Structures are given as structure tokens and as C-alpha cells.
Target: Dienelactone hydrolase family protein
Amino acid sequence: MKKRHIALAALAVIGIGAGTAAYVAAPTIHEGAPGEMPELGRYGEFAVGTQEVEFALPDRVTFTKAGMVTGSTEPEERSLKVRLYYPAEVAGSEEQVRYSHTFDPPNMEPVTLDYSGRAFVRAPAKGEAGSLPLVVMSHGFNGWSTQFSNLAEHIASRGYVVASIDHADRKLEGVTDFVHSFSTVLASRSLDQRQVIAQILAKTDSEAAGPYTLIDSDRIALIGYSMGGYGAIATAGGDYDYDSGTFSTVPGDALTPVRAAAKEDAQIDALVAFAPWGGGPDNRVWSEETLSAVKAPTLIVAGNQDDVSDYENGIRWIFESMTGADRHMLVFREARHNIVGNAFEQSQDVPFQAIEFVNEPVWRQDRINGINQHFVAAFLDLHLKRDGGKAAYLDVPTENSNDSQWETAFGEQLNGKLAGDDEAQHWRGFQRRWALGLEMYSKPAGE
Model:
């Protein structure tokens, strides 16, 4: 197949699906003019450095297509690339990052994605040793490490070290390849997350140079999207129900290390799950009992029309069942599965499959990004930095954002203000008239 080469300024989100097209990217943060971003969705005080590293993951096994039938496994030398983002010292001569990824779905021409970020390549880390929380990010099925570059850079700009994993999911060529690739993901996502965290902390403990020195190993958050969320919930303590028929294509010996790892505390202090997969009745991988074992404060983000992870019977069931954790669930009304990821503008001749794969049918992707950045920043600051003032951004006065109240003076319509202490009945940090189309549900541990 002929490979296209296309320049981009941002990137699309990949969950489960396929599509390709010519893309022109739209910026998700306005330089010097934050525009419609809610308050905490705006870039932080730190310049951001970035670098790619690679970790060898020990004692792994894999299986072939035949192994799905025979149950046989074989040793695997597994290594994964991880993209680091961190507060940096920028003198002005550093190179601003350009990312590249080849998107190669089945039955379509591959597309090489080149896109610019705001981080600076290998800029020196800035900050006191052991002073910053670690945030690990895990993408969806057949995604890649920089699919969340906007969110990762945003978090780092607010004083965190971010590590985004490239899980190197097996390439898809047809139905049997899909089943094989997906089955290996079922057995590998949580193990990848656990081993990457362990390797990063080992470097932190050994006083390795660069961004590792900034990490406070007692403050760790995990963010996962779709299959990354499936793995993240398990890593945070929600072990799987291995009798679930969902695991029928995974050899038992491939699940043995997953079972063993689940007995070890991964020390996750905060969990964010975007559209987590695995709760729907047809593919449920947990029980209410196993989900109740998650103790870390949790933020779930979902679209109420998600037909991949099944919002009503899957994602909501996960939220309701995580009774061991203080938790919030942010809902984008009328959104489906693509509720996280950078914004794209498509050319007029873009195939509809590509539009469906990277965009939401109703919401603008850049609007979604700003709202996600706002709430993730509040959640991480509250639980990893112990900034109690951020609770007001999550403990909203009305479950339905449309019910927010903010009095308008006679003759006043536009003012650009953000809701603060004086607007206690409005969703904090949002502009007047702009807190719309959202729901926020909250439950304390034990409920």
C-alpha cells in the first residue's frame, strides 16, 4: 500500500475503530488567549520538557493465534516506549517537539501523522528533588503514547511528571488478527502499567538523572482511556473476574502473571478512567465485589451515548460498583466514545470512517479537551497535592450543569468572568452561560 505523509499540529484519539484521511490540526490551547477554556483548562505556570525512553519489562509471556485454541504460551521479550513530560528549564534555544506516528488500519492506506506540541525536546528538568507527583497515562486499543499529548503537556505544565505508555498493540489485518490482538491486550494492559510504574520508581529510588529526580514516589496517579481504563481499574485494585467469558480466548497461563500481580499493591493514589471498557453485560470482566476493592479516589469521564463501553449498563455500573472509593463521574451528554484526545479539522474529501473514528458526533473535540483538562487538573491537585480548594470544582452545586445559576445584571449579557466564590450556584471555573451539556455525579466511599 502507498503511504501518505501528512503534516499535523496536533493528533487524534484512537480507541476502538479504524479510519484514515488527510488532516489539518486545530490548536487545543490558544497561545496567550485562553478563550473559552474553563479556568483550570488553561496552561499552567511551567514550561514543559519531553523525551522518549524505553523500558524492558521482565518475565512476560505471549501466545499465538493457535495458542488461543491450544492454551499454549511462550516467553516474550517485551519492551515498551514511554513518553515523559515534565516541568523544564527553557532558555530559548531548545527545540519544540514534533511527534510522528504511522496510523495503519486494515483495508486503508497508512497515514504518517506529524504534529507539533508545546513541549521542548530533552529540556532540563526544573524543580526540587522528590517534589512532584507522577501521572502515568495508558491509551486505548491500538492507540499510541502521544495520542493524549495535549492533556499530558497540560498536566506537566501544572507541576507533574507525566509518563505516557506506548503499549505497542499488535497490528490489525483482519478479523482473526483483531481477536488475537485484543486477546493479548486483555492479558497485558494492567501488567504493562504495573511494570512501567515499577521501572520509573526504581529509577527514582536510584537517583537517576533528569525528570526522575523530580518524582515523589508516594504520590502516583493513573489515567486510562477505554482499554487503558480497563487496565487501570485492575492496576488500582479492581482484580478481574477470571471466570468471565470475555477471557475465553486468553490461555490460562497468560493470565497467571495477571492474577499474581493483582495480589501486589500498585500504590495508586488517584485514578482517572475515560470511557473504561469492560463493564458492559456482554463483556463484563469484574464483579461488584472486585470493583469495591478499589480504594483510590476515582474520576470517571464518559459520554452518555457511549456504544463501545456501554454507558448505561457498563460505565455507570462500574461507577456504582466502586463502593470502596470516593468517586466522581463527569458525563458529556450526547457524546459517544471519543471523549478524550486532541482536536482535528478534516479536509472536505475526508472519508466518513475517519470522521467517525476521531470525532464526537455532537461535541467539538477542542471543547471536550478544555473541559477534561479543567476537571483532571482539579482532581489531581485535590488528591495528589492535597489542595483542598480544588474540591469546589468537583463538588458542583447542581448535578446537571444546565441548572447552574448566576444572576445577570440589567443589560448585561457578556462579561468573560469565571465562576468563583461569589457564584456558588454555578459550576466553578466556567463562564456564565457556558456550563452546559454536562452532568457530575459524586459518591463517597461506602455508598
Observations:
- The two ends are 54 Å apart (CA to CA).
- The longest helix spans residues 175-205.
- Residues 4-403+422-443 form a domain with the Rossmann fold fold (CATH 3.40.50.1820).
- Residues 1-33 have pLDDT under 50 and may be disordered.
